Amino acid sequence: MTSVEILYIGGPTSVITLGGVRLLTDPTFDAPGEYAVGSRTLVKKTGPAVTAAEVGPVDAVLLSHDHHPDNLDTAGRTLVGSAPLVLSTASAYDRIGAPVRALPTWEHTEVGGVRVTAVPALHGPKGSEPLVGEVTGFVLSGAGLPKVYVSGDNADLDLVREIADREGPFDVAVLFAGAARTPLVPDAPLTLTSERAAEAAVILGARHVVPLHFEHWGHFTQDGPTLTKAFAEAGLTDRLHLPEPGETVRL
């Protein structure tokens, strides 16, 4: 089976290379700074380990959502404008237009030899959709290729179970973690906790887990050490890969 390579750029941003196809997740290339989001302020603490210019051409952007700057910042928007294809939600298409293409849940498209399927995601607890907005995840698959799940900002394990039932098991799970918290939903995390990330790995049958979006922003309440601890306590240390920013993991 062909390997998958994941270049970790920082935050939710990575380049996943599968079957020679290069897919960029949630582009964030700004320097550190503050972003006003309604009455809230999101603080970016660390810039990207790789610049947009250094990333080079990609075949498509996998954009989980466009309306939060920690998933699509100013420099990311510039990149999206010149990308050959951006797969995202219907609301992202409504706000941005081309080259964004809305990919409805459970529908798929082909990018090179990779099938990209949109899968459900919920950016917080059940019932928070009107507050947090529409988000999506992705499944990457193809003949002779590893099957990869990219969670986006999903916090709901019931959706993970549905995805596993329909699309699993997975060779690689790219899980957005960090237990993000903001005043928008003060009583619950908006992304997977470290413990739920470990549980998701089991549900998905994932042989390898590469967490993203657990550091570099001030609203994360958990980090790499809590992921390491949670996976160790679950007996899953051998599945967890925590690359340094700028490092490529080959699986």
UniProtKB/TrEMBL annotation:
Keywords: Hydrolase. Pfam families: Lactamase_B_2. SUPFAM superfamilies: Metallo-hydrolase/oxidoreductase (SSF56281). Residues 22-214 form the Metallo-beta-lactamase domain. PANTHER family: L-ASCORBATE-6-PHOSPHATE LACTONASE ULAG-RELATED (PTHR43546:SF9), UPF0173 METAL-DEPENDENT HYDROLASE MJ1163-RELATED (PTHR43546). This is MBL fold metallo-hydrolase. It comes from Streptomyces justiciae.
